[in-house]
Every structure is written in structure tokens, then in C-alpha cells.
Sequence to fold (545 residues):
Amino acid sequence: MNIWDPKRIRAEFPIFQHHPDLIYLDNAATTQKPRSVLDAERDFYERNYANVHRGIYPLAARATQLYEASRQKVAEFINAPKIEDIVFTRGSTEGINLIAQSFLGPTLQAGDDILVSGLEHHSNLLPWQAICQSRGAHLHIIPFFEDGTLDLQYLDKNLGSKTKLLALSHISNSLGTVNPVAEILTMAKAKGVPVVLDAAQSIATHSIDVQAWDLDFLVFSAHKMYGPSGIGVLYGKSEHLKKMPPYQLGGEMIRDVTYEKSLYAAPPKRFEAGTPNAAGAIGLAAAIDFLQKLDRKAIFEQQKILLNYATQALMDIPGLEIYGQAPEKSGIISFALEGIHPHDSATLLGEKEICIRAGQHCTQPVMDFYDIPGTLRVSFAMYNHEAEIDELIQGIAFAKQKLGAI
Amino acid sequence: MEAPKNELYHPLILQHNQTPWRFEKKPAAALVLTAYNPLCGDKFKLFLDFEGEKVKTAGFHGYGCAVSKASASVLCKKMEGLNRAEIEELLRQFRAQFTDADEANGDEELQAFAVAKEYPGRLTCATLAWDAVGEWING
Fold:
């Protein structure tokens, strides 16, 4: 296998030319953008821009063709059976809200069960919580152990005939746990329960094949896979999508409209009301091209090396505790320093151009589980390397000394 | 003690963070105010007792970053001995330094926080407890 060289790929990311000393370790929040993605968006606006699916003139036809070619690229990227199974959204959050409202909305009843992993980002908790509350359905949270792994026995026991949906993330955004998706899917499929997989944190590093996993729904965001912000993908099985009512109403999503009643377009248009973020879709396609030209396995291996290197170095710091030590982890480490608020250390690190996240990471219940107000979180991408971890460790020592912790 | 530009952690802030003013729970106090920032989770309770119109003792307890804790500490210390109108003036002085560059209140414990305006993400830490008192004053 090839060895991945993070320093070489940095040349593809203009942000590191503008900020040569930037140590960007907040990739679980969002990744930086390669030049090819930025160029694709700019090129679309400069040479091919018109509204899609509307104009008759050649420029509009070209814009539409590029937008739909992006959909095709996404379909191939996750091995969707049909291009129509790909709905462009604003991001994972919108995808999940769409499923809650249009898939569960028409059928969820009092007494039904929804199962959600306890590790979820608020975006994969609140939509289910709200719809369960409004219908009198039960929301069951799959508990997790101290190391950040899910209690699969609880899951297996609670999957039943009343379970209308199981929602979970591939990778936990705050702890980095890689959930055993194949095993969980086998359990859910045995009981005939549809599954929503949130791949926001895994799409950049893991190959996902929706047919191999027989996924009902998959959501992800472009901005965490080196693509633009404001664009994401919802994949849904045709059998589900075609039964689902629209999520928003307006232009583009119609077949026939009168003042009295309207007929809606077939998927995916039914779910894309209004002028879509076509430049975003084109940027996402460029991000897929960018990833596919690289050795993704080698990138993932490098992130494992970084994970081990950083975990070891952090554990050597007195008074530092790491939260989430699952056997299968991605390049995410959450930790806290005794006696120092995460925001104070993150501010001092920020002054040294070291960017790490501080707070609850949109996972307040996970923080409550550990009885902590928040953590510091470092998360890696293809451009990070060991010397940056060394700088981080020095920065933490500086913060501890400055803030007077022992 | 002049803090260099872009230096959030003024020595007085660090000092108040390490040895905060009346940092203890006092649920039986005449007035208990809550200062809470749901975005970061910082949460303090302020405990005020009065003698006539004036604040006799002001203390606090809770959890927050060095800046929010130190600013709650300075606020409690400064409020003691003041009536409502005087507290209102204290709040005005504290807040003015974030909006008006020429505003010099001459108080180094208040001025220690002036640099927070250079840190947009941290200004709310400096004002957290002050906003809670402001809500009480404005009733």
C-alpha cells in the first residue's frame, strides 16, 4: 500500500498558502477546500450559469446538464441504483428533517417506536424527538458504554414490530466511535426496520455502498468531504421516495398546478422546491472527483497513524482525560484538561493559529453522560501531519502554564 | 498593568479566576440571579443580600471559563455598597468600553476585560453575569 504524504496535498488547498502556519485540526466541523472545488464553482458561475430546469436557451440547458451530471456522479459515488434516488439538500440536517417529515410524518402513530443511537449529533436526535412527541410515539435511545461504543444488546432487544425506524451515525462526531454499521444493519433488517445512516463524519474517509448495505436512507454533507457548504445529499430507496409527500412546496417540484389543487413531480424533483444550489452541486461533484483521484485507503491509514500518535502524546499530559476510546475510532479525539475550561485553552491555542473545537459539539446528552460541560476536540483530515500534533501538545502546555493549572 | 493588544487573559482576569470574590453557594440570599449561556454551557448563580437600598454582599457560584468567572467575580466585588442606580451606572461603564474606544472608566478591574471586544467569540463570556444583573435592574 502507498504511504500518504499529507504535506504534498497541502499545496492543493489555497488556505494554506494564505495562512502558511495554520494548524487546522477542526475537520470534524468542516474541512478546507481544494483548488479544484473552488475552480469548479467559479467556472460554473463564469461560463455556464443560468437557473436549472427552467430556461430553454442553450446556457440554461448547459447549467441543467451540469447540475444533473453532478447528481449522476453522486449516485455512482455511493452506488445508488438510480440517479432519481439522489436528492440534493442543504446538508445532512435537512436530509434528516426531510425523512422525519415526509417518511415518518404520514404514518407514525401513538405507540410506535423509533430507535436512535445515544451518540448522535443534535441533528440526528431533535427531528426524531419532535415527531415522536407530536404523535405520542416512543423514542428509544440506544445507550453507550464509557468507551463510547453502543450497547448492541439493547438495540437487538428493542427492535420490534412497532419499530418504525432506526437512525444512527456511521461515526460519532464528538467521540470518533466508528459504529459497526454492517452488524447493526443485519439486526435491523432481520426485523424489517428501515435504517437512516448519517454519514456526515465518514463520507470523506469511508467508501459507502448503499446497495451492499441495503440502506433505506443515507445523508451526508459536502462541506465535510472537501466540498462546498450549503449542499448535501439524501439518498433514499425508490420504494420509499416515491411514496413520500413533498417536504417543501414551491417552484420546480410540480407537475400540474391550478388555483384549486396541484400535482407534484416525481422524485427527486418533488423534494427540491425552489432554485437549488446548483453551484454547490457542481462543487460537490468536483470534491468527489478530487477524492476519487487519491488513494483513500492510504489517507485513512495515515489518519489512524495520526490518531495513535496524538492519543499517545495527549495521554502523557498530566490532568488530561480523553473521552471515547472505542476500539474502532476515526481521526477524532475529545479531551478535557483538569481545572481549565475548554474555551480558555481553545482561545490560547487560537492565538498560535492552532484551530481546535471547544464545547459540546452539538452533542449535549453525550457530554451529560460523562458529566462534563464540554470538551476540546481535535479532528484530522488528509492534510494533517505529526509536526502539527507536536505543536498542539506544546500549545496545550502553554495554555496550562498560562491559566495556572498544574 | 497594561495588557498587550490581543491578550485576552489580563493578569487581573487570571487572578480573579484563581481567587474569585465570595465564590460560594448561598441559596438563602435575598436575591438569586442566574447567568446562563446555553451555547457554551457556562452557568453561574449570583447571590445578593441587601442593607436598606444598598447591596451588602454579592457572591456567586457555578461553572464557566476564566473570563466569565473573573467577570462575575469583579461584578460581585464592585456591586457591594451600591444602590440600584449606582449599579446601573456601573453596568453602563463596563459595557461602554466594548462599544466606545474613547471610554476610559479609570477602573483597571473593569478595563481588564476591554480586550474581549477583539475576540468576538468571547465577548459574551465577559458580559454573561453583567447581563443577568442588567435584566434584574431593568426588571
In short: The domain at 48-292 of chain A is CATH 3.40.640.10 (Aspartate Aminotransferase; domain 2). Chain A has two domains: 6-27+295-402, 48-292. The radius of gyration of chain A is 22 Å. Chain A is about 40% helix and 15% strand.
